[in-house]
Write a structure and sequence with these properties.
single chain, alpha+beta, seven-stranded antiparallel sheet, globular
């Protein structure tokens, strides 16, 4: 078994060590409930693939009214992750005083859910609320701002 793993590593076919450090579903439902005020089920891994020096993965936590999608791009060359934010759609609004340079993503076409992006330790992370996260359409903007503020305060991954 060790010999087979050594051959995979030598051939460059094994997952990079950096990618193994980041769990696909990094949060526990109780942690999300405490931070976001919604009950969530255990995370369900979604898409996962490697492409050109990046391991892409996602996890979805389903709640009663809405779901939280955690998307991650783990870069084999960690400094490359900082460049990712430069190509995001819409307007990027900095999260004031954020140590990881997190941004809120606004005006991104039809993907106008509360979204927080940040880069940390060579991983680009997207936190996106999906579904009916607001209770009253007339309060949608205020509820979006409140929810994304809570999302920005979640424990950082990795």
């Amino acid at each position: 078994m060790r010999a087979a793993f050594a051959l995979l590593v030598a051939a460059g076919l094994a997952a990079p060590v950096h990618a193994l450090e980041v769990p696909v579903c990094p949060f526990k439902p109780a942690e999300l409930e405490a931070a976001l005020g919604e009950k969530f089920a255990d995370g369900k891994p979604g898409m996962a693939y490697g492409a050109g020096g990046i391991d892409v993965r996602s996890c979805q936590y389903d709640g009663r009214r809405w779901s939280l999608r955690v998307g991650m791009q783990v870069y084999k060359n960690p400094p490359d992750a900082k460049k990712f934010g430069m190509v995001l759609a819409g307007k990027l609004v900095p999260v004031a005083g954020d140590p990881d340079g997190a941004v809120f993503q606004e005006g991104q076409g039809d993907n106008t859910s509360p979204t927080v992006w940040y880069e940390r330790k060579g991983v680009a992370v997207e936190l996106r609320a999906m579904g009916l996260w607001y209770s009253d359409p007339s309060k949608r903007q205020a509820e979006m701002e409140a929810l994304r503020g809570k999302m920005a305060k979640l424990r950082r991954v990795p």
